[in-house]
Specification:
With 249 residues, this protein is of the alpha/beta class. The protein has ten helices and eight strands. Strand 2, helix 7 and strand 3 form a beta-alpha-beta unit. Helix 6 packs parallel to helix 10 and helix 8 packs parallel to helix 9. The chain starts with 5 loop residues before the first helix and ends with a helix. The relative contact order is 0.20. The structure holds ligand BV8 and zinc ion. Keywords: Cytoplasm, Metal-binding, NAD, Transferase, Zinc. Its cofactor is Zn(2+). NAD-dependent lysine deacetylase and desuccinylase that specifically removes acetyl and succinyl groups on target proteins. Modulates the activities of several proteins which are inactive in their acylated form. Belongs to the sirtuin family. Class III subfamily.
Length: 249
């Protein structure tokens, strides 16, 4: 049975849970996409870890600077814009993202819960002191090369991106708010995620167990076939605007 869009229009509280797929149509590579260049022989889980960074700071810092340059050049796509528009159409919307880019914010979404931190925040690897000011982005960062990370002005440790690496705890408050929202919402839209990385990936299941309707938006949607679980197969930048039209016009 297909998902009934009026369920979205009648929802009191909607959670939108996004992964790398929501930024794919903005040209941002997802974690499923093969790494290229200097990083082609690496698994993201190795690079996105404290061990990976300590093993070769310029390699990992260069990877994040390249991603940062890509994000700076990208613009929000119709999926980000549809999610921002949905905020004004329902009484309460909680946006939870696994992404470290700022495309939801740039699309106009307020109060984005970043479970895995943000790429545009930097702190010292050793003493955790936040960077004193803006961190330079070298002109040629997008080409992809090793770049020496800047040093902490207090202890001379290397700066690191403010993202949650594999093996690191998620920000407690943010995770708590996301779990609460999942357990209180009527509808949860799971957009562009492969549902692999824990504990974030447990959020749709939490919502289902608490009685919500869950809709997966993904070209290859994975659904456990629960009675209140639906799949809208396709690209988020096409499916979400269509869902908005069906639900609100
Ligand atoms: C922790 C920030 C505990 C960094 C990221 C064994 C079993 C179970 C768990 C584990 C295990 N071993 C280790 C763990 C824990 C580990 C984990 O889950 N590992 C996985 C690999 C098994 N988790 C952790 O380490 C977490 N911390 O558990 O700490 C702890 C306990 C005690 C004490 C200390 C610690 C931390 C995890 C956070 C890692 N950081 N990101 C960075 O960005 O560089 S995760 C990163 O990968 C992303 O943030 C994201 O979450 C994940 C990728 O997932 P997706 O977003 O889903 O993206 P993906 O590419 O996978 O999929 C894209 C999807 O989009 C696809 O489905 C595709 O079909 C779809 N798509 C494509 N195009 C479109 C589209 N959809 C719509 N429209 C389109 N156009
Ligand atoms: Zn320091």
């Amino acid at each position: 049975m297909p998902f009934d869009p009026t369920l979205l229009a009648q929802a009191r509280h909607v959670v939108v849970f996004t992964g790398a797929g929501v930024s794919a149509e903005s040209g941002i590579a997802t974690f499923r996409d093969k790494l290229t260049g200097l990083w082609e022989h690496f698994d993201p889980a190795q690079l996105a870890s404290a061990e990976g960074f300590r093993a070769d700071p310029p390699l990992v810092w260069g990877w994040y600077q390249m991603r940062r340059a890509g994000i700076a050049q990208a613009t929000p796509n119709p999926a980000h814009l549809a999610i921002a528009a949905l905020t004004a159409r329902v009484p309460k919307l909680t946006l939870v993202t696994q992404n470290v880019d700022d495309l939801h914010e740039r699309a106009g979404s307020p109060d984005v819960l970043h479970l895995h931190g943000r790429l545009d925040a930097f702190r010292c690897l050793d003493c955790a002191r936040p960077a004193d000011g803006p961190v330079a982005l070298p002109e040629d960062a997008l080409q992809g090369r090793r770049i020496e990370p800047p040093r902490c002005t207090r202890c001379a440790g290397p700066l690191r991106p403010g993202v949650v690496w594999f093996g690191e705890m998620l920000p407690e408050q943010t995770l708590e708010r996301a779990f609460d929202a999942a357990q209180q919402c009527d509808v949860l839209l799971s957009v562009g995620t492969s549902g692999v990385v824990q504990p974030a990936a447990s959020i749709p299941r939490l919502a289902l167990a608490a009685g919500a309707t869950v809709v997966h938006v993904n070209p290859q949607p994975a659904s456990e076939g629960h009675a209140r679980e639906f799949a809208l197969a396709g690209k988020a930048g096409e499916v979400l605007p269509q869902l908005m039209r069906q639900a609100f016009t």
